[in-house]
Amino acid sequence: MTGARRAPQDQFLLERLERFALRLAEIDELLATPEIASDIDRMSKLAKERAGLQPVVEAYQRLRAVQQELEDAKALSS
Asked: For residue 60, which of 17, 38, 48, 55 is within the disulfide window of CB 3.0 to 4.6 Å?
């Protein structure tokens, strides 16, 4: 992320968002397996979990992109 110091609650939130992103990737991998495809109940539960995580992870990814753009702009102005 950035080299800037963050308040503990900000760091906690960013770490939690990162865990959400990792879980979304894990769910995507699971949904691609034949074992899950043959287990309709488990596939349904994973799909619901994914649907809840996706908008949060997308917002987090946009935040990271904006933070990187800000860092790049600061570096150029230095």
From this structure: 17
- pLDDT at 6 exceeding the cut of 90: no
**Measured at the alpha carbon of residue 12, what is the angle toward residues 63 and 27, in degrees to the nearest 5?**
70
Tokens of 72: 């790049």
The contacts of residue 63 (CB under 8 Å, 6+ apart) are 17
Q: Is there a contact between 30 and 46 (Cβ–Cβ < 8 Å)?
A: yes
> What does the alpha-carbon distance between residue 15 and residue 12 come to, in Å, rounded to a whole number?
5
Q: How many CB atoms lie within 10 A of CB 27?
A: 19
Asked whether the beta carbons of 13 and 53 are under 8 A apart, the reply is no
Q: What is the pLDDT of residues 26-73, one digit of tens each?
A: 999 999 999 999 999 999 999 999 999 999 999 999 999 999 999 999
